[in-house]
Amino acid sequence: MSATDTPRTSRTVFAEPLGAADLRRFTDTSAEASLLRLEQLAHLMDTAFLIPGTNRRVGLDALIGLVPVIGDIAGMAIASYIVYEARRLGAPRWLVWRMMGNVAFDGAVGAVPLAGDLFDAAFKANRRNVRLLRKHLEKKGSLRPNEIEGTATHLD
Predict the structure, then answer these.
(1) Among candidates 63, 64, 72, 78, which has minimal Cα distance to 126?
(2) Taking the CB of residue 42, how many other CB atoms lie within 10 A of it?
(3) Residues 104, 111: contact at Cβ < 8 Å?
């Protein structure tokens, strides 16, 4: 080994490029990774912010819904992405239709000025749809259960 050669260690051989882990997180198409991304999106859209002085949570859906027409269309487009991902993950037609019904109902009522904005803050279609998808994937066996059903007994 000459003076200009640098020793190769396992650290330099296996080092991954900066940002590779973040990229892998967004490109992982497994059911668990996809559902985690959808749950984060639903949280951002429906329950990300706490209204000061109350115990109510709202998300970006309620805030962008304040912009007439464009806000409602944008909210429905994001909610439709959740339905698209559900279909990609193998959700049956009846579940996709139910999720689309939630999106359509949220969009139709949300388009009504003022009352629709209050409804957007209360209905939370994205959280409902992700919960429906989670239940389906757990039942199908594609996903480990988030909660264990049954009765817990404390043993002394």
Answers:
(1) 78
(2) 25
(3) no
Q: Is residue 147 pLDDT above 90, yes or no?
A: no
Burial class (CB in 10 A: 0-12, 13-18, 19+), 15: exposed
90-113 pLDDT per residue, tens: 999 999 999 999 999 999 998 888
Which amino acid, residue 56? R
Could you state, in order of their start, the residue ranges of all structural domains in the chain? 50-141
- Asked if residue 7 has pLDDT above 60, the reply is no
Encoded tokens for 105: 């109902």
- Return the beta strands (E) in 15-129 as ranges: 49-50, 57-58
State the Cα–Cα distance between residues 30 and 7, nearest whole angstrom.
Answer: 38
Spatial separation of the C-alpha atoms in residues 130 and 38, rounded to whole Å = 7
Beta bridge partners of 102: none
Tokens found for residue 51: 């209204």
The torsion angles phi and psi of 149, rounded to 5 degrees, stand at -85, 150
Average pLDDT of span 109-128: 89
Least confident range from 26-30, 34-38, 53-57: namely: 26-30
Containing 49, the helix (H) or strand (E) segment is strand 49-50
